[in-house]
Write a structure and sequence with these properties.
Elements: H1 2-11, H2 17-28, H3 34-43, H4 59-72, H5 77-81
């Protein structure tokens, strides 16, 4: 039963403990509570995850960045000698 919980949590790190408990109950027929699932996962150092609410970069920004890169890709070396690069 512990191996099943660990395997399912490894396949999908965003699945909830309640869902895992229901899955174990339906497959093995043994009633298990969500806290027991959390304890098993905690023992093997698998912590909770939550999915991101939005993508890291929007489609619009992808296109703008690509356009910027294409604009400056073929600039001559003399152009880059006059550019001041800095970290913000």
């Amino acid at each position: 039963m512990k191996r099943h919980i660990i395997r399912e949590a490894s396949k999908n790190p965003f699945v909830s403990a309640i869902t895992l408990a229901n899955d174990v109950t339906s497959t093995s027929g043994v009633q298990i509570c969500a806290q027991s699932v959390r304890n098993v996962l905690h023992d093997v150092h698998i912590n909770g995850r939550s999915p991101r609410k939005k993508p890291l970069i929007t489609e619009r920004n992808k296109l703008k960045r690509l356009e910027f890169a294409k604009e400056y890709i073929n600039k001559p070396i003399d152009f880059w000698k006059n550019v001041i690069l800095r970290r913000e």
